[in-house]
Amino acid sequence: MKLWEKGHPLDKKIEAFTVGDDYLLDQKLVPYDCLASIAHVRMLGQIGILQKNEVEKLVRELNRIVELDRKSQFKILKEDEDCHTAIENHLIGELGKLGEKVHTARSRNDQVLTALRLYEKDRLTACRQQLEKLIGVFRRFVKQYGQIQLPGYTHMRKAMVSSIGLWGQGFIDSMKDNVYLIDCAYKLIDQCPLGTGAGYGVPIKIDRPFVARLLKFKRVQKNPIYAQHSRGKFESTLLHSLSQIMIDLNKIATDLVLFSMDEFGYFELPKSFCTGSSIMPQKQNPDVLELIRAKYHLLVAYEMQIKNITGNLISGYHRDFQLTKEPVMKGFEITLESLAMMSLIISKIKVNRENCKKGMTPELFATERVYELVKQGMSFREAYRKIAEEY
Question: How far is it, in rounded angstroms, from Cα 288 to Cα 339?
Fold first, then answer.
């Protein structure tokens, strides 16, 4: 039975179109929706809507659903539409009329928002952990190879002296900023929307702070209209923070692809990290780096997708919001997987000291020579022109 069912059948083609892949995506939200439902049930018990024994029965069955899901034994069917309907139908099937009480004082709208927020908080925490891991890997890399000089490039031409340490520390510093962005996104979404209903509250006095505390939200999202407005706004913000991680991984991958070429040979990828060619037997291809590089652009597209979907909508809920779920989930999957891959790559990649030394050609020291003349009393511009005459 659908949560909105009123006794008349829905055209099967319309049903298939409106459900889309939501029932598949929602498999990831089952434990989070159960967690939110447990808090909601306890709140209903506190305000006297449910008896103590009813609360206990519902909580026990919701925990059983979590366990079934953990074992891949709780499946959402297309006719369920989403995890919220599947969970409520299960409760009604197991507990009868008691299961019908679980939806008291909430809408599927705030139910969806709450499950998504819990999922997003969990995934942001996982991203933060992966960022810290990558920072640690880079630190060990810099400690091992940091003193090796490396040509620095501007305009794809040799410019000034750089080093492996300078290169690696640049990404460490940027990853620290990414941690800050993740923390900002987490702080923004750490608001409990449960109890806002379909965007206009519920006509019964409930204890929203109690639910927020149980779900470990920092605060209550008070205005019910803003709760709906924030769907899409919050998601595009967190995807923006993920895109900042991915642009760094894109840059690292681009550097490693270029500078591991035979023509440079500054870095060496393990053969076990490279794929081959179906026609050219000599090829060792850095496909893993190329895919990481490309996936940054997917993140940017997901961010724009959400901003475009949620633009030009009047206040209140719209079914358009359903289409913001998949970009967020895919964004997290790509970022977490790419971070894990990059940590593995940096932990195993080697620096070829001899090739780096060969790359340190005389023109890289031109600016240093200018400043040697400056130290001797020559003006910078005169020294600049003097050295420039040699090139």
Answer: 12
Q: Which of 317, 281, 351, 323 is nearest to 110 (CA)?
A: 317
**Could you give the 3-state DSSP secondary structure of residue 234?**
helix
* Residue 296 DSSP SS3: helix
Q: What is the pLDDT of residues 81-135, one digit of tens each?
A: 889 999 999 999 999 999 999 999 999 999 999 999 999 999 999 999 999 999 9
pLDDT in tens, 95-109: 999 999 999 999 999
Q: How far apart are CA 284 and CA 88, in angstroms?
A: 53
CATH number belonging to domain 108-196+217-360 = 1.20.200.10
Residue 235 near residue 248, CB atoms below 8 Å: no
The CA distance from 371 to 383, in Å, is 8
Q: What is the pTM of this model?
A: 0.92
| Distance separating alpha carbons of residues 103 and 260, to the nearest angstrom | 58
Q: Using DSSP bridges, classify how beta strands 219-220 and 191-192 pair: parallel, antiparallel or unpaired.
A: parallel
What is residue 303's predicted lDDT score, i.e. its pLDDT?
97
DSSP E strand boundaries for 119-221: 149-154, 157-163, 191-192, 219-220
Domain ranges of the chain: 12-101, 108-196+217-360, 362-391
For 219, phi then psi, to 5°, come to: -155, 170
- Residues forming the active site: 155, 277
Whether residue 4 is predicted with pLDDT greater than 60 in this model: the reply is no
- For the chain, give the percent of residues with pLDDT over 90: 86
Q: Provide DSSP, 327-386.
A: HHHHHHHHHHHHHHHHHHHHHH-EE-HHHHHHH--GGGGHHHHHHHHHHTT--HHHHHHH
Give the domain 12-101 fold: Fumarase C; Chain B, domain 1 (1.10.275)
Contact 109, 125 (CB under 8 A): no
